[in-house]
Amino acid sequence: MSTPIWTLRRLHDVDDQLINQLADVLLDCVEGGASVSFMLPLTRERAVAFWRKVAEGVAAGGRALLVAEDAHGICGTVQLIYDLPENQPHRADVAKMLVHRRARRQGLGAALMRAAEATARECGKSLLVLDTVTGGDAERLYARLDWVRVGEIPNYALFPRGGFCSTTVFYRKLGVE
Ligand SMILES: CC(C)(COP(=O)(O)OP(=O)(O)OC[C@H]1O[C@@H](n2cnc3c(N)ncnc32)[C@H](O)[C@@H]1OP(=O)(O)O)[C@@H](O)C(=O)NCCC(=O)NCCS
């Protein structure tokens, strides 16, 4: 197996340089057609504002933010959202799994998800939940990583250039491994 060209880490402080690099990844994914909350055109200012909010959530302990870095900076990211109702302390939502197009199809998405699962376990979580565009690259990724497919919600959101996409909900129980 070849050595990965990235390193993974959890960010606890997210400075402006990191926010800019995270914005680059988000912009690249949305420009590539990913349905991840944003419509085109997506300005850098809006992308930066999104990551500033995330950084606030990280600082407040409501989120865990993981990143992968290559020679050019951040090339992938994923989040665990812990800020959930008080009757769900044992679980987290997985959100904004994003891999820059320059780093795709080399196993980074899988590595980010395994790192997110490990972080969730370390934080005492036993259940993860996410949803993703039906029929997209990410749906195959999660199924391959043994996430359980719950079902599909038709016409749940829009693609960045318009047109409905359905979403598929997945969960994963985190046992001791
Ligand atoms: C979904 C996404 C995160 C996957 O990231 P990725 O880094 O390409 O994921 P992986 O490399 O682990 O797997 C992707 C594919 O590459 C293949 N692959 C992995 N390592 C490989 C390697 N060394 N050589 C060749 N192929 C490889 C995998 O088998 C998989 O194949 P498949 O798509 O045919 O099933 C990425 O496409 C992305 O960011 N998409 C846009 C944003 C998005 O939709 N995010 C999901 C939000 S829920």
Structural overview:
This protein has 177 residues and is α+β, with helices and mostly antiparallel strands. Helix content is 32%, strand content 33%. It contains four helices and seven strands; from the N terminus they run E-H-H-E-E-E-H-E-H-E-E. It has a seven-stranded mixed beta sheet with strand order 1-2-3-4-5-7-6, sandwiched between helices. The two termini are 23 Å apart. Bound molecules: coenzyme A. Coenzyme A (COA) binds next to strand 4, helix 3 and helix 4.
Strand-helix topology:
Layout: E1 7-11, H1 16-31, H2 44-60, E2 63-70, E3 73-81, E4 91-99, H3 108-122, E5 127-133, H4 137-144, E6 148-158, E7 164-173
Parallel strand pairs: 4-5
Antiparallel strand pairs: 1-2, 2-3, 3-4, 5-7, 6-7
Helix pairs in contact: 1-2
For this structure, the quaternary state is single chain
Q: Tell me, what's the shape?
A: globular
Percent in strands: 25-35%
User: Pairing-aware structural class of the strands and helices?
Assistant: alpha+beta
Our Rg estimate from Cα atoms comes to 16 Å
**Beta strand count:** 7
- What is the tally of helical segments? 4
Largest sheet: 7 strands, mixed
Bound molecules: coenzyme A
Percent helix, as a range, is 25-40%
Q: Note the run of SSEs as H and E.
A: EHHEEEHEHEE
Q: In order across it, which strands form the biggest sheet?
A: 1-2-3-4-5-7-6
Query: Uncertain runs with pLDDT below 50, 5 residues or more?
Result: none
Quote the average pLDDT.
97
Distance between the termini: 23 Å
